Amino acid sequence: MSHSRMQFVAGKIVRNEGHGEIFYRLEAAVPEPVEFEPGQFAMVSGWPGNDPLLPRPLAIFRAGAAPKGKGTVEFVYKVVGRGTALLSGMHPGESLSLTLPLGRGFDLVKDGRLYWLVGGGVGFATVFPAAAALGRRRTEYEMFLGSRTREQLPPKEWTPGGSSPGRVHLCTEDGTAGYFGQVTDTIRERMAALSDADASRLTILACGPREMLKEIALAASARGAEMQAALENHMACGFGVCWGCVVALREGDQIAYRRVCKEGPVFDAREVVW
User: Fold this and answer.
1) Which residues pair with residue 143 across a beta bridge?
2) CA pair distance 153, 56, nearest whole angstrom
3) Maximum distance among all Cα pairs of the chain, rounded to whole angstroms
4) pLDDT tens digit sequence for 99-130
């Protein structure tokens, strides 16, 4: 039986492969299949010793069923510190401690929307599951992927919808692939060309550096478009106990503080105090 409630799970690494010395893709076997909403995440640990003590938050990239009622779950991550460096050195057969699924994912239930998905850096790992979900529903979408250079883009074989002409737009700051410039430049140009009717139907799902999210949020707001932003704040516990990952939100005339791990990581970008 699949579960979407939070679970503490003992997993075992099936593969943990580096791709281009930039990204790692980790697959773990778990006791039961896991259901998750695109945008949700897991807290992951398993390296020997207690340094670092705290687990690391990783977006859930994919989950599926395995023989004998068991399941698998996959993550894509980039080495950015000691925890992910230790994780990248783990091998098939080694054990992981997982808490999942966590947080609030993307809202994909509205009909008649025009979807743009934006992934900056490793943020693609959060929006790819949304693309897969929209594809299963036969909902049209376009995807914009930004990085500094070609080598930092995700492999084509990982990219949902990559075989459909005009669906996936690559943006590199050095011009080595796709559009020459930042992904925010492409979004602003495309948004300026939209009719008012199409802009009012547009929902942007985005994950990446905070400044990227801020710029896209401002552009979306100016055209009356919706935007759901998946934030990547530092986390400690991952399920709302420590209040170490709060973000300021506008609630009416007040400023409120909400936990990225619990009330997020996906928020209405119009409410975020950028």
Assistant:
1) 117, 168
2) 22
3) 57
4) 999 999 999 998 899 999 999 999 999 999 99
- For domain 7-102, say whether CATH 2.40.30.10 is its number: yes
Phi and psi based region of residue 186 (left: phi greater than 0; alpha: psi -120 to 50; beta: remaining): alpha
Spans of all domains in the chain: 7-102, 114-233
CB 205 within 8 A of CB 171: no
- Segment-wise mean pLDDT, segments of 10 residues, the chain, 274 residues: 73 94 94 96 92 93 95 96 94 97 96 96 97 94 97 92 81 97 97 97 98 98 98 92 96 96 97 98
Cα separation, 82 vs 116, whole angstroms: 34
**Of 59, 58, 61, nearest in space to 81 by CA:** 58
Q: In sequence order, what are the residues at sequence separation of 6 or more whose Cβ sits closer than 8 angstroms to the Cβ of residue 82?
A: 51, 52
pLDDT digits (tens, 9 = 90+) for 128-172: 999 999 999 999 999 999 999 999 999 999 999 766 767 999 999
The token pair that represents 205 in the structure block = 């799902």
User: Is 0.90 topped by the overall pTM?
Assistant: yes
Per DSSP, the three-state class of 151 is: helix
Top-level class of domain 114-233: alpha beta
Q: Are 51 and 82 in contact (CB under 8 A)?
A: yes
* Tokens read off for 13: 């690494």
